[in-house]
Amino acid sequence: MRSGDAYVASLRDGRTVFLDGERVDDVTKHPAFIEPIRRVAEIYDRAKAAEHDPALTYADPITGARHSNMWLPPRSADDLGARRRIHRFWAEPSFGLMGRTPDHVACVLTAFAAWRHLFDRGGARFGDNVVRFYERARDEDLYVAYAIVPPQVDRASPAHRHPEPFLHPGVVRETGAGIVVRGSHAIATSATMADWLFVSYITPLVPGDEDYAISLVMPMNAEGLRLYPRRPYATTATSVYDYPLSSRFDEVDTTVVFNDVLVPWEHVFIYRDVDLVNAQFHDSPSHTTANFQSLVRFGVKLEFMAGLAMRLAEIQGATGDPSVQATLGGEIGALCAAFDALVKAAERFPLITSGVARPHPQYVYAGMGLQRTLIVDMMRTLRELAGGAFQAVPSSDSAFTSPETRADTERYYQSAAAGARERIKLVKLVWDFVGTEFGGRQLQYEMFYSASQPVVNRRMFKSYDWAAATAIVDRCLGEY
Length: 480
Ligand SMILES: Cc1cc2nc3c(=O)[nH]c(=O)nc-3n(C[C@H](O)[C@H](O)[C@H](O)COP(=O)(O)OP(=O)(O)OC[C@H]3O[C@@H](n4cnc5c(N)ncnc54)[C@H](O)[C@@H]3O)c2cc1C
Fold this sequence. Notes:
CATH class of the largest domain: Mainly Beta
Mean pLDDT: 97
Strand content: 5-15%
Number of helices: 15
Strand order of the largest sheet: 2-1-10-11-7-6
Order of helices and strands: HEEHEEHHHHEEEEEEEEHHHEEHHHHHH
Bound molecules: flavin-adenine dinucleotide
Structural class: alpha+beta
Radius of gyration: 24 Å
Largest sheet: 6 strands, mixed
Number of strands: 14
CATH superfamily of the largest domain: Butyryl-CoA Dehydrogenase, subunit A, domain 2
């Protein structure tokens, strides 16, 4: 398992990143990325220090080498428990605010390798490619990001009917060495700080889309691959005290453009096969396994949110108030506990097919469907608890040091429960969670990190045990 330093060094690979129209020479030294990269490097160090911990790693049955549980092919509920532990391990340092840590796409690759027979349907060499890349990613402890949703050019028309070809990524030509990819995908979160990019489609393709029917990986420094991050929030955060989350945990969503990137054959998983691209995430355990990571990570965020609510109420001296207690219990505690139960049910009652355990889809999709409701409701509750506190704050931490303003600041921003510096520190933390651009992005992430609500709800429709429910009705009808 690699160290944080080795990870940071791997990012100095000449990748093409453009910010505000200018090329970024070295992401590891740029203020937009330096802090989130530091966070990830710290977790790599912690993971390396724990490489012999059986709670977080497993021994390969053939080689005996130990690997992170994020690469463990799950065969049982206990294996899913091992995967849950590593997801929490990666989520806790960012309080669940970084969703696309290395353990996310590791789920996809692990599930693909455990389900190689799907890729073999396109030819055994493609199944070989999947397994070989999975083993490499596992052995080198790689950080892989993914781009699987195309830009919103025209959601009513398939890729091959767009105003011009290859707005969505597709194969412009094939050579003996590999395939040449052109086009763009909308978002690859964390791409600027990952090692490799997985590229395919989770949005359904249709017959006629064969040029677009690809599934492949490329290194982040592949010639022709351009990374266009949205505005990183760390660059606008004036201090850690004023923006404790924006300044440290922005994983930076990034549009990716493929300017005729040559992808060697050995990095191609699916080639010009619409059915296989459509099947890869849902026939294989990849979608439930990756979203299990998302749910575990979201559970950490919910706990963080519950803690913020309680601390906010405490600092305002409001915890003894019956209506505040009812709000904390009913609108925060109950939802957090219910969500935790869903994650545990998905783990403890897996569906085991072909020897692979997938977190139970019924609970995974129930969790995903509830996620956006929970985040919206709980953010609103935090706002209700805060009242005008977010706006009644000094403009920056300089107010505490300026001889002109220090006395007023210390006096009028205090509460009965805490001094001004401590109280404002908490208030600014909560605001960065619910109200800043970083906070808004967090809300959007939970609403859309996987798909729009109707898409998630239709997955739930397919996963719920309707047969059991209708059997009860039939029994009732049969009684009279
Ligand atoms: C913060 C964030 C991070 C993300 N990170 C990643 C990432 O790392 N990798 C990745 O691949 N993707 C990522 N995504 C993209 C994510 O997968 C998509 O946003 C999600 O799948 C929804 O697709 P979309 O954005 O294209 O929205 P759309 O599918 O276009 O949906 C937008 C709205 O339009 C509606 N709609 C859709 N189609 C139609 C239609 N034909 N007619 C009428 N209404 C329609 C939907 O119901 C929805 O309300 C991220 C998204 C966010 C917000």
